[in-house]
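Lab channel / #folding
Pinned by the channel admin:
"Please post every new chain as: sequence first, then the structure tokens as a reply. Keep commentary short and put observations after the output so the thread stays searchable."

First post following the new format, from NK:
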Amino acid sequence: MSVQHAPVQNVQQHVASPRTGSQPVVDPARRPDVLLRVRRAPGQEPSAWWFIGSFVVFSGAVTALLSFIPG
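Reply from TO:
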């Protein structure tokens, strides 16, 4: 049993040539076009403990408020 393929058409594809040479290295965390980005100097970033603490406090507040709902 042989498989017959459709005839191949000569179609020119316009492919942009790849850029060669050295590329500038861009840190995605420092891109200036990101919405609501605050660019701080190295060492001035907030501690991760602020985020952990706010998560614990927010979760506790939600749990406390939900405990007032009967049922």
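NK: DSSP finds one helix and no strands in the chain.
TO: also worth noting, The longest helix spans residues 48-66.
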